[in-house]
Structures are given as C-alpha cells and as structure tokens.
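Predict structure. Chain length: 408.
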Amino acid sequence: MRHTTTVVVGAGHSGLAMSRHLAARSIDHVVLERGGVAHSWRTQRWDSLRLLTPNWMTRLPGSTYGGDDPDGHLAAPEVARLIEDYAAESAAPVLTGTTVTAVRADSGGYTVRTDRGTWRARSVVAATGLTVPVRPALPVPTDVVTVHAADYRNPGRLPTGGVLVVGASASGVQIAEELRRSGRDVTLAVGEHVRMPRTYRGRDILWWMDASGLLDVPYDAVEDLARVRNLPSMQLVGGRRTLDLNALTALGVRLTGRLVGIQAGRAQFSGSLPNVCALADLKLGRLLDTIDDWADRAGIDAEPPQRYAPTTVPDPVLATRLGAGAIESIVWATGNRADLSWLEADVVDRRGRAVHDGGVTASPGLYLMGLPFLRRRRSTLIDGAGADAHDLAEHLAGHLHTAVRRAS
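Prediction complete.
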C-alpha cells in the first residue's frame, strides 16, 4: 500500500487545476487517471468540434492563452494538447492507466483501491466530471442505428437516410447543422434549451458575461440550484456566428418537440415546442437587459443594444416513422452524467446524483470537482476550474490542519 496526503481522481482540466493549487500549498498528492491526460477530449469529441469559449478564456491556474488568435476557438485535439502541456509544465504527479475502483472512508482518511494497487490518503478529490453518456431507454427499432454525441464523429459514420437528433443544446445544434450541410434530412427534437447569440453589441457574448460578473454568480445565491445545475449547455458554436433554431430552420432542419416515446416503430414528440421556445426567447431577452444595464452603469463603449427575432415555431409534428427509408439513425445529444459509483460514501442521492455543498461533501475530506455550477456559474467552463480548485484546496487544507490538531 502506498501513502499520500491527497488523491485526486481524474487528470482533466479540473483535476490538474486542483493539483496546481495543492502543490502551491505544499500538500503531497497524486493524480490518478484511468486513461491518459485529457482522456475525454481525445475520445468523446466529434471531428469538427471547437471549444465554445474563445481562446482568451482558456485559463487555468498559472496559465493563460499566449497565442496570436485570442478570439479564435481551439479544436478538440488542440484542447487535449493544451491540457497535456499544462500537466507537463505544472509537473503534476499524474499516474495514467490507473483506474480507481473504490474509495472507502476509514479511520483518519480514505483507502483508494485501483487496478494497480491501493493507496492510503487523508483526503480525496473526485475530479472525473461528466463522463457517462446519457441514453434514453426507449425501444428503438433494430434497423435504426443509434449513437451518442460522445461517440459521433462525422456524417460519413452514419448510414444514408434521415437522422433524428435528440437534444438542442450546444452539441445537438452543431451536429444537426453538420448533418444537414452534408445533405441529410434532419429532424431535431427540442426540449428546454438556452438560446444564446455568439456576439452581442460587437463583443463575444461570453466577454459580456465574464466582464459583468454574470459568470461569477455563486452557487449559494441561486434560488433553484438543482434545476440550474441540470440546465442544458448554451447554444453556442466555436466561431463568430450564431447557431440558433432559426438558423437551423433556414437550413432545412425540421424542428419537433421533445422526444417522449417510441411506439410501434414511430417516434412520438411532445407538443411543448412553442412553450419551450417562448421561454428560451424570454430568458435571452432578460439576459440582454441585464447586460445592457451593466454596460450603462460601467460606461462601456459598445454598439447599440439589439434584440433578436423570436424563434419561428413550425406546425407541430407529434410523430414520425423510424426506419424503412425514413429516419435511419438517431443521435442522442442528451448529455453526460457523473459516475460516482466507485465512491463508497454517502455522497449521492437515490438517483445517483452528487450531493455536495459547493464541492464539499458530507464525508470529511472528500471533495468533488468538474460538475456544472459547482461553486459559480463559470464552473461549467474550463475557465472556472481554477477558482473552484482554489476554494476547495483552501477548504481541504483547513480540514487537514483541523485533523492534525485533533490528533495531537
């Protein structure tokens, strides 16, 4: 058995940010990674994907973007290389190819079991993020190919014929556009979504959200935190263009309501499309009002305020045939979830969702990183990992200090 003060599980950007802050506090630790550094960026991204945040926003503790294209957007392989380089520059103590199978609390700390031996640590940080694709349990006909967005690569990997894309967050709208531009007949099943322009008043929308402090709203200031943490990602695409439902409709993508079932070889859709679109339009208007108010108070020199046309909602389509020359494949753009089944501690609810207070669990010395709205709105972004890691490393250091005092 090997010993260390802290075990960090996961060598993505969240785990490496935590490692950096632990090192700054001289806390002995190891980072255990089942694959390689930035594993999910190499294995769960489609070919044309670009990071949704501009390059200037690709910030990690002690590291900022230094290239000549601050307003550009990194491709997935470039993000993977950036995270790999960050691990090397930080001299992070990463052990790759090491799968954690169980973490159990015991006297004075935790026993961490892996497929390459056992560790003993006084604290553990689970920084594995959202890695398990969510696939609805529906009776899809056997002749219809299904693939999750995490496994989708390009249109050529799907059979010819129509495609149903389920989910209209960032992944869903981008994949629907790519498939339509390849010549496919595309249907997009739309549920709750977050409409967002790429630029507003001459600046990237994330510049406004960053500068105004909207991305720094703390988790304990949100009225319905559980709902906010489960919101879909913003409808953004890497580049300086807006890709919303109106743009997809103009391309010929057919919009339907949320997929609610499959029966007798027919996909069935909710009639809620007008309502969810109206709600998304309303929330976008409120966001832009907030930005305009802040810009006025701050005296920001920018283009005049603008508003966007309401989402055009087509006549309702409540069912469509699957297979047999109609929809030949389904892409599940239904998001990912965290897998914390290896944590043998009371930190998940009956639905398998993490229970925590800003990343601090009820099990002393056990912390979570890499989850949506962990401590603030920007937690969902690479840019948010540094601030979250700073706060949790500080709490962790306090826990260790208290444990030492009690032992003495």
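Summary: DSSP finds nine helices and 20 strands in the chain.
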